[in-house]
Automatic annotation (TrEMBL), chains A, B:
Cofactor(s) the record lists: Zn(2+)
Key words of the record: Metal-binding, Oxidoreductase, Zinc
Residues in Enoyl reductase (ER) domain copies: 15-352
Species, as recorded: Vanrija pseudolonga
InterPro entries per the UniProt record, alphabetical: ADH-like_C, ADH-like_N, ADH_Zn_CS, CAD-like, ER, GroES-like_sf, NAD(P)-bd_dom_sf
Molecular function, one GO term: zinc ion binding
Keyword Zinc: yes
Protein's name according to its UniProt entry: NADP-dependent alcohol dehydrogenase 7
Keyword Secreted: no
Family designation: Belongs to the zinc-containing alcohol dehydrogenase family.
Length: 361, 361
């Protein structure tokens, strides 16, 4: 089988709004622990847009983003970890790590001090160390089999794609803070991550409260699995007063310039946590006294490991109602999809589908 | 046996510096679930000084603070929970709660929405509801047996007193965040709470790093059980650079006007927590990005329950080296002890000893 390596490449900070160029690229050197994956689907995540807009720093010419990848294995090396040609696998936000440190050994690869991020950072080991990796807005992905995770039976591959970044990003803190039966979980913001957080928390057995501006998304939130909905307006303290001390955990998926964390802390039960997975530009500010008297925390969480992705895939495979709501775009229309994404149009995740590779629109 | 109710009462905000007046007071109505305790020892805690200085709000005339009490039971009611005259018991920062809510039912009385605080707040139930309680800078304590905890054998009663507030205040977060073998715990500040945090974390099996200004307290920190010491100066970021990602948990016992939380977050390993037990006046401010990439948290913790006090007493009884370092003052010298306390003189806890009641100086 022959296949090519071509992708939608960013060249300047306007790329986020649809200025990507379709072009061939040189993949990393194939090594015995690598696989080649013919890409079927790739989700569009907020951090792809941020990276292409230069918000995480200047990008090199030819940056290929995309990190919610699902595709078919077309080549394996001698140490490809049991993967076989024809397997359907996915790759998330992390493409590689040192595989030698205590965190990699503990199957917490996301904490490795030298991760390779799929939307573009250098490989840290092997013959291609130092060269930039290429992401999922492409025809083919090549990389370590360790980070290519086989889909379980019963999972629609297009709907599965967003689980590999957005999904595991909310699953990891939900698991870490004990979401399950008897736990009251708030999800702040109903977008790509938020809608998955509602679904996943519900699938884990938690009672879910969605928190969003106005009531426009209430019907969707309830369909996604929320039993309660708090519509916010101009005065959070007033909005939250009837719900004081009602939640064990809040997953904050929003990323406005500023978040009034103190207002959200009032929603937490003792020993509760407000956990940010969406970055906020301005510093977070709150008084220590309510933190101490309420015995609450403000935390952050950063994607998940291959093992955590596997757990999440199994959970969603056994809870079909928790599959992300995706809207498919033709792979070749990425420059139309990105501006729509940036307008907030997804309900709730855009996924590119490469029909030439066999994807279904 | 006859005994009187007399205490050292505060009347204005200068009281913290030693303007307390010794006078008789009317105790609460004795109820069948109460005990009377002849006070032998009472620790002096920072929050006593703060309360007497009006920092937590104006105080009523005749406020009796003191909430690290150890004494001998001299009267029991019919429902005094198995306590008997002659038992040596202690009372911490909490004197009562509703005993009916979900938190009280779950033995987490510190989270009851209507706690009665020993250094002065109103009773919430029974015949004395609405009247102010009286604390431990007194000859006798009267209150619910539920909050009077029997000392286990082998614990020196004077050294045990500080465990009832300062000790359990650091024990509770150490336990909640998993301090034990294999855990690297940082203790920020070596004062009343900090010195107990080092001892207790060490007794729990953790590896302890003490963090303090300069190196004046290094020798003490090591004697208390710290295996490492980080001396801080004017540039925290530089001081901490060699120790980046080295600690699982930091218990912050300091209460300066301002804390540079961001600098301390750099010390945390992934999933680590910076937990404040000392209040800080100015708002806490940090950027969300390191919180997310490091998967770390900033939390608070608020004293502990009677059950947690019992656990701590058992731990220290079985680890005699973890008994607090106390300096005794005669009960009648409280107005001399308070100004010394406010100068930072304790090494590391002042305890009042009432020799007329049988205490030993």
């Amino acid at each position: 089988m022959t296949y090519e390596f071509k992708g939608w490449a960013g060249y300047d900070e306007k790329a986020a709004d649809g200025g990507l160029k379709y072009e061939a690229f040189e993949p990393k050197v194939f090594e015995e622990d690598d696989v080649d994956v013919k890409i079927l689907y790739c989700g569009i995540c907020g951090s792809d847009a941020s990276v292409l807009a230069g918000e995480f720093g200047p990008i090199e010419a030819g940056r290929v983003a995309g990190h919610e990848i699902v595709g078919e294995v077309v080549r394996v090396g001698a140490q490809s970890g049991g993967l076989a040609v024809g397997d359907v696998v996915g790759i998330g936000a992390q493409t590689d790590s040192c595989l030698a440190c205590e965190f990699c050994d503990a199957h917490k690869e996301q904490y490795c001090a030298t991760p390779t991020l799929t939307f573009g950072s250098p490989y840290v080991r092997g013959k291609s160390a130092g060269t930039m990796c290429k992401g999922g807005f492409a025809t083919t992905w090549r990389g370590p089999a360790h980070f290519a995770i086989k889909l379980p039976a019963g999972l629609d591959p297009a709907a599965a794609a967003p689980l590999f970044c957005g999904g595991v990003t909310v699953y990891t803190p939900l698991k870490r803070w004990g979401a399950g039966p008897g736990k009251r979980v708030g999800v702040l913001g109903i977008g790509g991550l938020g809608h998955m957080a509602i679904q996943i928390a519900k699938a884990m057995g938690a009672d879910v409260t969605a928190i969003s501006r106005g009531s426009g998304k209430e019907a969707d939130a309830r369909k996604l699995g929320a039993s309660k909905y708090i519509a916010t307006g101009a005065d959070l303290a007033a909005d939250f007063a009837p719900h004081a001390r009602s939640l064990d955990l809040i997953i904050s998926t929003i990323n406005p310039p500023k978040v009034d964390v103190a207002a959200y802390l009032a929603l937490l039960r003792p020993e509760g946590a407000f956990v940010l997975v969406g970055a906020v530009v301005e510093p977070i500010t709150f008084h220590s006294f309510p933190l101490i008297t309420g015995a609450v925390s403000v935390g952050g969480s950063n994607t998940g490991s291959p093992d955590e992705i596997r757990e999440l895939l199994a959970l969603v495979a056994s809870h079909p109602e928790a599959a992300p709501w995706v809207q498919k775009w033709a792979f070749e229309d990425i420059n139309k999809a990105l501006p729509e994404f940036n307008k907030g149009a997804p309900r709730y995740r855009f996924v590119l589908a490469n029909t030439e590779n066999g994807a279904k629109l």
